[in-house]
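Following up on my earlier thread - several people asked me to post the actual chain instead of describing it. Fair enough. Here it is, all 598 residues.
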Amino acid sequence: MKQDRIRNFCIIAHIDHGKSTLADRFLEATHVVGHVDMAQVLDSMDLEREKGITIKSHAIRMIHNYQGVDYILNLIDTPGHVDFSYEVSRALASCEGAVLLVDASQGIEAQTMSNLYLALENNLEVLPALNKIDLPQADVEGTEHDLKEILGCEASDIKRVSAKDGTGVSELLDAVVEKLPHPSGDPIAPPKALIFDSYFDMYRGVVVLVRMFDGVLVKGDRIKLFSTNREYEIEEIGHLGLKFSPQKELTSGEAGYIIANIKEVADARVGDTITLAKGGCSESLPGFREPKPMVYSGIFPINGEDYGNLVESIAKLKLNDSSLIYEKESSAALGYGFRCGFLGMLHLEIVKERLLREYNLPIIATTPSVRFLIMLKSGQEIEVHNPIDFPDPTFIESIQEPFMDTEIIVPTDYIGNIMKLAQERRGVQKNIQYIDEKRVALHYEMPLIEIIFDFYDKLKTVSRGYASLDYAFKEFRPSRVAKVDILINGEKVDAMSFICHQDKAHNWGKSVTDTLAEVIPRHLFKIALQAAIGGNIIARSTINPMRKDVLAKCYGGDVSRKRKLLEKQKEGKKKMKEIGSVNVPQEAFLAVLKADRE
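Reply from S.P.:
Thanks for posting it. Predicted structure:
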């Protein structure tokens, strides 16, 4: 197929603006599938369908007839949530154009702008489209006006569609062919293919999805992966339909898959370049920027004997989710596990769910933390993202924590609520920008530790669901943070320790001890639950003992007899407290995560 008849494009939008539904209509219009009723065909995970979000980017090949000529459209569907922006960047690096989809009933939101800037950074041609024009509350003219202001385009350039009922979908596909550029690779140059996704098939090994930039790869070719220098022979190569479609070759400008008997999951890195083992290209493609984890948490199997399965499962999951970063860790309370880096709290939740569903591994995640830069009095600078590694305060000269550039887009009615919430979370307001008479963009610089727990939930609550959030790393700044230890009956539980700002240490500590008091069962002796910074106790909750009625058999007689029995019980409880261990159920570790962080 000639390159001028190929279009590689993606759909970018804020979460819940209708990307997956529009992709379904594209598949119907190009006869890849028959009629589907809100099926989210490309959202293959149960999790994606349940939550109504796209987690993984998906790719599919369609053929669209435009003015009597067949064009190949390679669509790469992308996620919209801020935690999966890395997936978006991978899709953008494989495309020449993007459809910018905006919900006409909600208008331009924070992640819309973030994804638009990502597309422009990648020099993509942007085709704007308004979705959900059939809704009674849709403000088509107003949203169109906003798009014209941001993109500097004409009203005629903005397509109007309803992904739900199919209105305007054919016209949008025509516009993809007309407006978006075709690939411009060199078909006779040495092959150069970019890996934009990969996953593990237990029968066939690693399957890599690639975008061909230059040259041709043929079944049977001996290929080389740049990052490892390892060589493999192509067993199968082909196009990406709903099912794989084997072909003899992949040519310049096409997207497809390669199966080459790659057994080691770490060998096929996303962003790597594939070329011929002999006579291949001399330089690799730029690939993608490495993902920078924002949130760190320990992951441990609930059953200790599942550790071997966890090692294998997390390696396979890493292949499918290259933004996940992990290293081995051990805990006195939870045994062996991994310290993992995530792009955000939703990312953490999704990884936990996928380990349970895809690999049947129930796990516990410890209290999330972020990266801190600590300057020691000895002059050494260390990076800490695990509370266990936090040095003794007497050795610390200064501490820096990560601050984020945060953008909140919200209706003007809720500005006061948002400002109050941001102030409580140590946000520094930079500016207010009115998008139109109804909506405003608030720009804050805010500590990441304040965002990761429940800021998004609180934001939705105080704005009745209308606010949208986007954030990106800005810089490290000096801060007064401290490590808070949780003690159960005087014993430190390392898996429950956390790092927070000193002004919030008491409230956070009290919240955790109160939550534990509700979850840990009562014992025959009193249990003290304490939060401490160093040797100072800053919060305490108590679980009262269960009381056995030792006077039940005493029906009369002298009072000294009763007192003797009570004294004997008191001595017994004291002795039990000294040697008794507290039974901490698994739910207690989960409850710490859900403790309120006001």
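DSSP finds 14 helices and 31 strands in the chain. That should answer part of your original question.
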